[in-house]
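Aim 2 progress update. The chain analyzed this quarter is reproduced below.
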Amino acid sequence: MRFIHTAKLALILCASFFHLAGAAEIDIVNSPVPVVLEDRLTVTGTSGAGEVPIRVSRDWRVEQADIMRAVIIIHGWPRRDIDADKDLQGRAGSLAAGTVFVTPQFLTEVDVQAHHLSPVTLRWKQRDWLQGYDARSPAPISAFSVIDQIFSHLADRRLFPHLEDIVLAGHSAGGQFVQRYAVVGRGAQEISASPIRVRYVVANPAAYLYFDDRRPQMDGSFADVGAQCPTAGVWNNGLSSSVPSYVQKPVEAAALEKAYLQRDVVYLLGTADNDPNADAVGQSCTYKSQGATRLERGHAYFRYLRAAADAAHLPQRHRLFEVAGVAHRTFAMYHSSCGLAAIFDRPYCEPPLAPGRRMLNQVSPEKDSQQNITSTPSANTRMPTKTSGDSVLISPVAGSQCVADQCLAQ
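Predicted structure tokens:
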């Protein structure tokens, strides 16, 4: 009977997947999620409290002495890709040892009504949760406050006495959420007295939060586009207006930028996520001013930050990893070798070759294992020579370069 039930469930989920794949994304976003996570996290704010669905891979109500890393995964805009944690646990192997996975789920009113959820369930407007705005009901609690609560719980040494790292990762709209939280979130600051390190993994977001109105130009420079695109600086792509109540006022863009540049952030970009017509929001000037595609916007933003770090005489702490041949696919991005490197803090996407050796055979782009760790060089950086059959890129790992999907120590 259990097998029959599982088979039926699989058929239902498959049918649901193919139906949703053919529908417009906004239609999916506006429809109820098929599954709501079972457990609940209570979040308390100054104006009340509420609950969000959550899944934790361990019982985090009792001591977990063997846990050294926590990975928090934020779903995408349709609120359905909630199983990336399970996929990672199955594919990461020994890398996931000593790791607790945490998956919150941000719901909307249609989800709460369709599943007859408790009135204390927090629910947001369709775009509000990913931008850090307050819930509509039952209390005006920011989606960012949910992450603060998770950080605080994980930092409790009575429960996680040996926790060393917290990783906050998100793909697509989840990537937007993570990148904005990395700028304005309070979680890391509130646990700064602890020895816990925090890393943010931002995968294939539609756009990024800039600290001024300068945007990339065709010649590689950055220029003010405020006159041509008045919405360029509006949250959640800028700090000039519509900033969530969660963010401390007055907003000091320079201070936020300086702090952000000193955080550990990895941008994870699929090289095939390069369709200029991939999403409706990407057609507005707010998004187009950042670049034509998600891939282009990611590289442009990385250049923007590297220039800012150089100007402030700060070390280059941010890194950009490319996942070759992968488009806008949550699971494929995370469980790629570069995704695993970003989440589990491996220094390379693949084990480095011995010093002095070169890998001349390029891996097939169809294979998910072909990855590159890349970094956009500054203007005075000498670019390595690209030879036939090699894909040579400057690596963020000091003193190394990547050939095909391998990094060579120099």
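The first strand starts at residue 39 and ends at 45. Residues 1-22, 351-410 have pLDDT under 50 and may be disordered. These observations will guide the mutagenesis experiments scheduled for the next reporting period.
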